[in-house]
Amino acid sequence: LKLVKQSQRSFRIIHYPTTEVVIKAESCYEAIPVNSNACDGSLMSSLKLELQPVLSGSAKDRYFRVSSFKDLNARLRSVIQKVTCPAAPPAEPLEGPCDPSTNRGCDRSLNQVCVKKDGRNLCTCPPGFQKNPVTQCCGGDLCNPELVSSCPHPDVCKITPFGNHRCACLDYYYRDPKTGACKGSQPPAVSPALEECDADRPCPEHEECVRTKAGGHTCQCASGYERNYRSDKCQLPGTCDPTIPESCDQRKRERCLPDGDKYTCQCEANYKRHPITECLTSYFSSAVSVIDECTAGTHDCDQNAKCFDTDESFICTCNEGFTDESPDPSQKPGRVCKQQIDECTSGTHNCSVNAVCINLPNGFVCRCKENFVDFSPNPNHFAGTDCRALVNECADKTLNTCSENAFCIDTREGYKCQCKEGFMDDDELRNPGRNCKKANRICSEGGHDCDANARCIERGASSYDCVCSAGYIDKSPDPSKPGECLRQE
């Protein structure tokens, strides 16, 4: 597939070699585009990771490899939604406070709305959204409600008052003042990373006490460690904490399991990672875990079909000797497989006795035998139903009606007649070569008695006329024999 930008709100998807589909971004009213400077710190990071397999070929042409068009329903649509949506307009200049009835005076690109509070009109976050202290946006990145992985765990994708969707914290969650990520049910009175540290107040495990620009001291992760925004602990990159229930994304069927001398987020038994959505966050290998329906027996393939597991789902393919008669074979093949019938062997075909029957997976075709001609009513679609022997009518005079002064030419469908040289065809349009008469050559061979100042014009097969040339007049005494020409004075 090649993704080509067609307009501000749509992309044209070319499915090589011939298929072409236009996909429009429908539900992205006032969404933030990729090149926007507002609210795009984490958006750019996650979008870059999501587009990693897309942008691998060229910076201008975006390629997205999918096994079938069903994959466009969520994942690629999410990419298109983020790339094609027009930028939200900035806050309109307005003297005085904002207007709650129109939201004028508030920055829509930051997902702000105008409300009346304590007798004053203020720009604030809409219900269900919290201000991100890092990006100053009300909520997280733009997201696709059809794609669970478009928001980092434990965020959920919610619709905004402006028609687009953003990641939001669940009820009883708050946004961390350092990372902007959704965390536990109650915010701490003082963030651990902001506490002073010294000999009497040492830093937690894997952290070290460093001097700040303001002259104080604070704890930060030691070299080789990074802070987990869920637990606020410093740990090795890619590891998890089995004592924290939400250490891994349960929506993606991941569990914190032993991995050598450490713990990592892993897929459950009979599940596997999806390569397209791998590493959507910088803290965990949060790949989507997809169950193997073929092994688990949860597929709906026909009993006469094979089940092949794929990254997204599974594919059914009818066994050899069976025909796919599924209701939607292009999108869901192998759901109904019927045993093929050999019409050629069973004698249920309608081929001519002078034709060869060829069995095919979806039926049969007829081909006329050598030296037989196909006279079927519809030879392009149903050939070989009427095969007639190839006969040379020219070899037997009784089988053709050509004139004795014509050539007989044998053809695949019959024969045709053509008058010989020196003979004229009296019925060339309707019955060519059937009535051939000797050509009139009296004038050309000099067999006429026209005056020297007259022109000889052949008429019919054996007659001619004499016509005086220009500048001469006919003075013939016998009108039936014109052509005695004298110069005109």
UniProtKB/TrEMBL annotation:
InterPro entries attached to this UniProt entry? ECM_structural_protein, EGF, EGF-like_Ca-bd_dom, EGF-like_CS, EGF-type_Asp/Asn_hydroxyl_site, EGF_Ca-bd_CS, Growth_fac_rcpt_cys_sf, Mua-3/Mup-4_EGF
List, alphabetically, the SMART domains matched.
EGF (SM00181), EGF_CA (SM00179)
* Chain segments annotated as coiled-coil in the UniProt record: none
SUPFAM superfamilies annotated for this entry? EGF/Laminin, Growth factor receptor domain
Q: Which UniProt keywords apply?
A: Disulfide bond, EGF-like domain, Glycoprotein, Repeat, Signal
**Domain EGF-like positions:** 193-235, 290-328, 340-378, 390-429, 439-478
GO molecular function list: calcium ion binding
Family matches, as Pfam families? EGF, EGF_4, EGF_CA, hEGF
- By what name is this protein known? EGF-like domain protein
The protein's organism comes out as Anisakis simplex (Herring worm)
